[in-house]
Amino acid sequence: MTTARESDQLTSDNRASTTMGRWRRRIRWMAGVAFLVTAYWELLRPRMLNWGATPAEVARPFPGDDLLPDPGAESTMAVDISASPDAVWPWLVQLGQEQAGFYSYEWAENLVGLGIHNATQIQPEWQDLEVGDTVRLGRADRFPDATLEVAEFDPEESLVLWTPDDPTWWVWSFVLEPIDEMTTRLLVRSRIRLPENPVVRISSLVALDPVSSLMTCGMLRGIRSRAERLVRTETAATGSDPSRER
Q1: Is 162 helix (H, G, I), strand (E, B) or coil?
Q2: CATH code of the domain covering residue 215
Q3: Nearby residues of 151 by Cβ (< 8 Å), 6 or more positions away
Q4: Minimal CA–CA distance to 165: which of 206, 128, 193?
């Protein structure tokens, strides 16, 4: 027969056991969260931000790096295109909301009302490029300040866009490198200045990284498909490779 003292002891032991079980579950939960955060930050995030690029390409300097030498975030992506640099360059020249769009996921861009319409052809009237030209990112009536400017360019080799603020907060660099007569390596680097507030800084990274990576990846694939399709079409029409005749 259980005495009152023994009953109180059992109750106390049960409470202690319940409390200990709760703490074990909390510790396991926190350990799981810490593992997922670490896996994302150390494994998934670098691959996401540097899709297609080699470690050497990620580490090397790009045109425009000097415009934002100490970025809060940086991404370098790359893709091989079965076309010569002079067949890829016109697609870069006509980037912009008011021109050829950005060749990415148009439906996603227009969910927020950017008014993007991705071109499928090279338009001669969009091929004039000068330093200081404006590249609009969204509709002027809804996003009047959503613009970049041409900071510098080297035809068929590199194009650098930036926000000419003081200090600048975004530099977007495109580099074309020939691999052989019919293959081009297209590299894109994005450098962004982030707010000093650590909470806002981390929140910005969490929000921007997946979106910017997805859209940049889509843009690279979009440029590749357009450039390669045009080369195939011109080759079929003329019976020779047009890029070798340029």
Answers
A1: strand
A2: 3.30.530.20
A3: 64, 67, 131, 160, 161, 162, 164, 171
A4: 193
pLDDT tens readout for residues 134-161? 999 999 999 999 999 999 999 999 999 9
- Give percent helix, percent strand, percent coil of the chain, each to the nearest 5: 50, 20, 35
**Based on the domain organization, do 42 and 60 belong to the same domain?**
no
Same domain for 41 and 106, yes or no, is no
In the structure encoding, which two tokens stand for residue 38, read together?
């670490």
Angstrom distance (rounded) from CA 58 to CA 137: 25
pTM strictly above 0.85: no
- For residue 132, what are its two tokens? 């200081």
Q: Structural domain of residue 19, as residue ranges? A: 1-49
Q: Are residues 24 and 127 in the same domain?
A: no
- Domain total in the chain: 2
Q: What is the pLDDT of residues 191-236, one digit of tens each?
A: 999 877 666 666 666 667 888 888 999 999 999 999 999 999 888 8
